[in-house]
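Rotation project, supervised by the postdoc (A.L.). Task for the rotation student: set up a whole-complex structure prediction and record inputs and outputs verbatim in this book. Inputs entered:
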Amino acid sequence: MSLLSVKDLSVWFETLDGTVDAVKGVNFDIKPGECLGIVGESGSGKSQTFMAAMGLLPKNGRASGSILLEGQEILNLPITQLNAVRGSKIGMIFQDPLTALTPHLKIGAQMSEVLKVHKGMSSAEARVQCLDWLNRTRIPEAARRLDQYPHELSGGMRQRVMIAMSMLCDPKLLIADEPTTALDVTVQAEILDLMVSLQKDRGTAIALITHDMGVVARMCDRIQVMRHGAYVEAGTVDEIFTQPKHDYTRKLLDAMPRIDDAGAPGALKGETLLNVHDLKVHFPIRMKGGLFGKTVPLKAVNGVSFHLKKGETLGIVGESGCGKSTLARAVLKLVEPTGGNVTWLGQPIQDMDKKTLKPFRKDLQIVFQDPLASLDPRQTVAASIAEPLKTFRPDLTARERREEVLKMMTRVGLEPSMYNRYPHELSGGQNQRVGIARAMINRPKLVICDEAVSALDVSIQAQIIELLKDLQREFGMSMLFISHDLSVVRAVSNRIMVLYLGRIVELGDGETICSAPQHPYTKSLISAVPIPDPAIERSRTRLRIPGELPSPLDTQSALRFLPSRLDAGQTDYVPQLLEVAPGHMVAEHDSLERILAA
Amino acid sequence: MLAYTLRRLGGAIPTILLLIIASFFLMHMAPGGPFTSERPLPPQVLANIEARYGLDQPLWKQLWDYLTNILLHFDFGPSFKFKDRDVNDIIAQGFPISLTYGFLSFLVCTIVGVSLGVAAAIKHNSWLDYFAVSLGIAAQALPNFIMGPILILTFTLWLGWLPGGGWNGGQWQYLIMPVIALSTSYIGSITRITRSSMLETLNSNFIRTAKAKGLSTRTVIWRHAMKPMLMPVVSYLGPVFVYVLTGSVFVDLYFSTGGLGQAYVGSALSRDYAVLLGVTILYGMLTVLVNLATDLAYAWLDPKIRY
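Outputs recorded:
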């Protein structure tokens, strides 16, 4: 008998403009103890299916059909009856662990209220049980966490708390709505491992809602592919990955960049455009201590050197807080570097004032992560694209400018009819095309892409990557491509730089970094990246370096891979970059056994 | 928390000093003085009077004496207009009255506004919501200087239920109309702010989590939504508290309560700069104190602010 049986479920929203169908009559079952993946892009209705089951639809949301949990109808139950089910028989974890916990309640208080409501436990009993579950999620110092507030925990720890909280009553079904999307890749690997072990130990069935085919390949037994509110294909994980029947499934699989992709670009030869030497950016941070606190430097970028050739793409990867965005901004002097040199075409630019630097800006452009937020909402897209033209080519007449803009819009795949549209009228992918057109309009020599495709759906992401590569072939610009997603970086970069807490740990051509990494940190990063192929995923071993990503303020953490120096008391030792092969730089580190033992 | 409070207090002291000095100089820059009149006094008499109030001293000396008297003895000096009365007396007589109905108005507008806003948000798009929204807009269009005459016309002159003015030791009949007049427009704005803040909070991710845990609607609202919802409300309540005290100038005049507002306006008209200056500084100090209280309330509502 199936655990959850969904029959003919429809979900729609009543809006002022009429009804909007989100889910159009879907049927599926989840068996006890299995992991079902529900895959689709944003707006496909994959979350709404389960929101309806949990009674969490927005006020204007309606649902019809039937959802049986162990034979009991739970769709459209009155809240009081539904409350006996949710949190007890069904647990749910959400995408964004940073906002999913109540900010003003301590972890212990939030967790124990579940047990108090469903099991009628006393505070003391509940606390014991909560601690037990926190320990099972392998959260460090679990007992201390109970009395902390959510903001004192890292994203990964908060997601562990969410999982512990949803597992407190031993639910039969755990609904995980993009549980790792907001997390760094090594943390993602840990959270996925945790979910697998829960599934095995407790026999909990998991409904995993995600857009990431790699995650699905690792986790799921069966998959439902969803598009426009309907299931287009269903099958076991092997069927879907090896013999996808529907075009859309194939499209999704093709769009996923893979870190083991053989066709990715290799190293380039050519003249050097940009030379960065020992670049440092330190921010003063106010810390607790004394009546007035004290200021300590946060070393966001701490001595980074690299060069960039003409027409080359250098990928910059690293986990959140490693300084990759700050590095990019410091190169463009959008933040003031604390030290070091930046040389552009043989000219040092780090000491130039705004006025002298201005003509250089024409050649140095940047594309940001959030396409909607980085465009002026009150300007038409054409005005946004035309703005750099006005600054750097004031001789153009309005008509010439219009023609340039239209030419660039066509080039990046925007309809000329969108000329007078506003950013909020366009989709995320279209807005990012606007951002790229704005950056490209003056034919710059260097474009920095700061997480430029991270907010986009896979299929859109693939299109934008293709567009960037096309533009690079046509205009020959160099790129600094920053992303937390190693597979994406691999797909576009000639060389890859791996950053850890403001320093380079490894730098080499893409192939070397991804298939033969040397530094333990790079190894752990690469091995944590899910590959959209269930056969490979099952056979891979993962290198796990225990512990959370440390804070950049912690002076010891810089030497996490050199414990021998720490033991020798050399706490301010700077690991040197060694050239192990031509063009392949690796930071000094101890042997893996030594690091794992520390 | 203690260090935070101390640091905040430390910041308040220079603010108050600056306030006193700035008000002092502004008052001295105003043309004319308390003793200039249509018929000029003989120079000898004027000099005698000025010497009596210390006005013949150099300005820095006057400021120094004024400052030390306030800071060491909380003494605002003598009134220029009323012989034998000093500013402290005038404040002591009027301030308790202003404070009484100002504080009552504050309570009324907070309680009514917050309850109405919360109820409207919970019953979003129901008749209760529409009622609260329209009441909010209507109330906001009725500042105290409009409400005052309306109330007197209705309840005193037309219905004859309530006395049209006076204080009478603060009996309830005398309190009702000043409190209503003063709180009405703030009820409107507090309702609006509370409603939109509550709607936003109820849409947030942690409320979804709380619901998914199977908590009752009551627990979700009271335990999870209330504190975050109050953040913007509290930041508005601070200024409102100061407004209801200073806004009472009109109410004092309409209802002849004998509050500080009456003395304030009277002293402005009669150029009694000592009283004017004293009351201004008192209101300023109150503002600083209320801001401090707001900051501390913030720390209570949001654990992230506890330094």
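Student's summary: Chain A touches chain B at residues 54-56, 58-59, 79-80, 82-88, 91-92, 94, 96, 99-105, 113-114, 117-118, 149, 151, 162, 165-166, 288, 290-293 (CB under 8 Å).
Supervisor addendum: The mean pLDDT of chain A is 89.
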